[in-house]
Amino acid sequence: MLNLEGKVAVVFGLANKRSIAWGIVQKLHEAGTKLAISYQNERMKAEAEGLINDLPGAEAFQCDVSNDAEIDQVFAQLKERYGKLDVLVHSVAFAPAEELKNDFVHTSREGFRVAHDVSVYSLIALSRAAAPLMSEGGSIITLTYYGAEKVVPHYNVMGVAKAALEATVRYLAADLGKQNIRVNAISAGPIKTLAARGIGGLSDMLKAHADRAPLHRNTEQAEVGSTAVYLASQLASGVTGEVIYVDSGYNIMGF
């Protein structure tokens, strides 16, 4: 395992032990990172804090990333507590449940807005707030999915939002590179998270993935976490604006 002692990381998007964020948090903790971990609201507080308390030295912060005032508040707290940031992990995505049930052509204006605000604009807002604390450079990491490139049944507006997210990664990388801040995305294979359970046909998606991927299995949280540690480390010092696949090779297959 890489050694990231002395590094400070903030992770947004922890919901429960099935969260991709939890897999990333565990690996960053193993690498020695000082961790600030954010959950969305009071409803998620008990479960999130229960997990965070199992990681000695990690601290919990509440932040709804669709609220600029809460973003400002949490980054003021981070500045006071740590003085700097080295790593930002954006593991946040949401679309109203009804948008993932009907045909994409029936996407509502409000559903489209919400999906892009929470899943995409939040990365811009968090990066803007984090950049002044990354005075020694840093690594910003977000999570995407193959549905950004190819049509995945029932993924609908989230696929369009993930495509926008991947473009956002490139534009942020271009903007922040002069500050030695790298911005990358991990495209993880389907994982049975709380958010993924809202997608119709998830079981079929998981089976198809395992059947067709070169490694003939689904992706594990820990594998995504290990890639995040790599992107957070100096081993990835020349990597920015990229989408890195952690999907057992599924994306390389034609059929």
TrEMBL record:
Name the protein family: Belongs to the short-chain dehydrogenases/reductases (SDR) family. FabI subfamily.
Q: Where does NAD(+) bind?
A: G13, S19, I20, Q40, D64, V65, V92, K162, I191, K192, T193, L194, A195
Give the protein's recorded name.
Enoyl-[acyl-carrier-protein] reductase [NADH]
Please tell me where substrate binds in this chain: A95
Residues the record marks as active site: Y145, Y155
Q: Which domain of life is it from?
A: Bacteria
A biological process term (GO) from this entry: fatty acid biosynthetic process
List the catalytic activities from the record: a 2,3-saturated acyl-[ACP] + NAD(+) = a (2E)-enoyl-[ACP] + NADH + H(+)
Species name? Silvibacterium bohemicum
Q: Pathway it belongs to?
A: Lipid metabolism; fatty acid biosynthesis
Keywords assigned by UniProt? Answer: Fatty acid biosynthesis, Fatty acid metabolism, Lipid biosynthesis, Lipid metabolism, NAD, Oxidoreductase
- GO terms, molecular function: enoyl-[acyl-carrier-protein] reductase (NADH) activity
What InterPro entries does UniProt report for this protein, alphabetically?
A: Enoyl-ACP_Rdtase_NADH (IPR014358), NAD(P)-bd_dom_sf (IPR036291), SDR_fam (IPR002347)
The EC number of this protein is: 1.3.1.9
What CDD domains is this protein classified in? ENR_SDR
User: Which Pfam families does the UniProt record give?
Assistant: adh_short_C2
